[in-house]
Amino acid sequence: MSATYMIARAISGACIPMVAFGVTTVPAMAQRYDPFSKLGTLGASGNPLDEDQPESVTGRSRPEYATVPIQAGSLQIMPQVSVSSEFEDNVYAQENNRTSDVNVTVRPRLSISRPSEGFAWSLAGEYEATRFFKLTSENTNDYAFKGGLQYQVGSTTTFQANVLHSRNSEQRSSPDSPTGIIRPNRFKLTEGYADIRHSFNRVSLQATADYQRLTYRDNFNNLGEVVDQSFRDRQVYTGGLIAQYTMSPSFAIFAAGSANKRDYRTRIGPVPARDSTGYELALGANFAVGHLMRGTLRAGYLRQNYKDPTFSDNKGLLLRGELAYYVTPLVTLTAKIDRTASDTGVRQAGGYVKTTATLQADYELKRNLIFHLEAGNENRNYNGIDRTDNRFTGQVKATWLLSPRWSLQAGFSHRGQDSSGVSSGRDFSENRAFVSVLFKGL
């Protein structure tokens, strides 16, 4: 996915205080509601009885640095623009013949919202233009348009819906991106998500529905030949249900399940359509260990059944969890693990099972200066071919809040991939360094 799409999700998600690192509880709309929280995520609901939890470094309120939106009657308008420059030492993510370059990215964004305790809505649009100094074929123009609403039915039921349409550029370092193409892969994503939540006494229920449509543009190699990407075009339908019982202010158990259907374009050629149906079933808990450790963990079973006999089914352990340790008010440690079945752009494979584990640390050196460290590993076990990828990522980043309108950020990241098997992919490593400035409001 493009940086526009991922960063927009990350920024909007960071604005929402989390409860036990699941989905937020029913909030006061004007203070917490953001319809652009991550679309399509089936998470455990928060513990509604737990109101005395520590704040994380990144989730802590900083009123003196909070941007005040433009007020137009009942509407709130928030313009912003970020400008960043990044150095990459291996733009094409190759094992040999590394090529480096510097790029500049400009990202304007405008959001309009109407906060309300009964009915709230929001609209936003953003554009991202990236320009390279030497490798102009890597230049990209991406955009995203989003809309969302939330409706409170009485005091115990909440309905929300979100829509998204975006054009994105696939990173060269993605395992799904083929080598030898003349420019980054481009694709469009249309997504709609809705959920309804109802609580009574200690029981809460959440039902979700998600629709995605992805359409990829064909590419070209250095000889001018077409590199087909249409075999990746698909529509994905997902529905889910979570039932949770809160046993105490520090412990809640839940059962979660989801089912999906993935429809690909009909294929006439060497790559069969990868239509499939699948499901996930899990039991889990939101919990606290003392006052300084909070987490959520689910374990269960996942299965993805492919229609074409060319591909074997993906199945096995489902594991998803997040644990936060509030070492001090100035230091937060977070560990995450996720194991799930995903689609792929590798032609011969039906998909893969991905296991991701990360560890991150946030440190508030000063009220307005936050350091972020992160290290993680991603393992991809492909279905239908003998290939396993291991990808390591490390990152250090600093955010400096200068004022309610201005902030600076700088960081360095390292990524490496080791691919093994008869049909192994490429091995590579890359380093990136960036600096960016963000302006919000007027």
From TrEMBL:
Matches recorded under InterPro entries: BBP2_2, Beta-barrel_TonB_sf
GO cellular component terms, semicolon-separated: cell outer membrane
Pfam family, one: BBP2_2
Signal sequence residues: 1-30
Alphabetic keyword roster: Cell outer membrane, Membrane, Signal
Subcellular location: Cell outer membrane
Protein name: Beta-barrel porin 2
